[in-house]
Amino acid sequence: MAKVGVFFGTDTGNTRRIAKDITTALGSIAAKPVNVRNATVDDLLAYDTLILGVPTYGEGQLPGLSTGNATTSWEEFLPTLAGQDFSGKKVAIYGLGNQKSYPTEFVDAMFYLYEQFEQCGATLIGAWDTDGYNFKASKAVVDDRFVGLALDQENQKDLTPARLEAWLATLAPAWD
Ligand SMILES: Cc1cc2nc3c(=O)[nH]c(=O)nc-3n(C[C@H](O)[C@H](O)[C@H](O)COP(=O)(O)O)c2cc1C
User: Fold this and answer.
1) What is the pTM of this model?
2) Nearest residue to 127 (alpha-carbon basis) of 81, 161, 93
3) How high is the pLDDT of residue 176?
4) Pocket of ligand 1 (CB under 6 A)
5) Which domains can be identified in the chain, with CATH numbers?
6) Ligand 1 pocket mutation pick from 75, 94, 102, 106 by most atoms within 8 angstroms of CB
7) Going by DSSP bridges, is the β-strand pair 145-146/128-129 parallel, antiparallel, or unpaired?
8) 91 with 123: CB under 8 angstroms?
C-alpha cells in the first residue's frame, strides 16, 4: 500500500491541481489524491505520512460552506478530528492563498490544520521560510516560518514548481 496519503480541500481547483502534481512527483509511494469532503478520519489514519492541502477563504478562514464554497471542505472535516489519536503520524501541510489581495490573512487556513493535528498528537513536518513572499501578516507563521508550504497561484505561479520540488525534498526523510 502507498505510504503517503494526499488529501485536499478546494473550491476553484488550484489546491487539487497541486495535489496531483505532488502525487505525480512522488510516484508509487503516494496514493491518489482525495478531496477531504469525501474522506473519513479512518481514511487519513490509514497512512503513516499525510500531505494535506488547504486554500484560505473568507477573511483568513478555512474553506467550507460558511465561506461560500460550493461544497463542504476542511471547515466541516476538522471538527471530526477532535479527540482522535494521530500520534506516530507525520503531517505536512501546503496552503494556497493570495498575498496581494489578502496581505494580512495570507494562507491563514494552514494554521487551523496545524493546530488541530498538533492537538491530535501528530508530528508536523514541512515548515517553510517566508523569504520571497510579500505579505504583512499570516496566522500560518509560527516561530518565523510558515507551518507548511505557502503557494500563490494568482501572483507567483511561476515560482510554484521549484517551491514544490524543494519542499518535497525536505519531506523525503519521512518516507525514505
Ligand atoms: C472569496 C475569496 C476569499 C479569499 N480569501 C483569502 C484569504 O483570506 N487569504 C488568502 O491568502 N487567500 C484568500 N483567497 C485566495 C484563495 O485562497 C486562492 O485563490 C486559492 O488559490 C484558491 O484555491 P482553490 O482553487 O483550491 O479553491 C480568497 C479567494 C476568494 C475567491
Assistant:
1) 0.98
2) 93
3) 80
4) 10-15, 55-60, 96-98, 102, 105-108, 153-154
5) 4-174 (3.40.50.360)
6) 102
7) antiparallel
8) yes
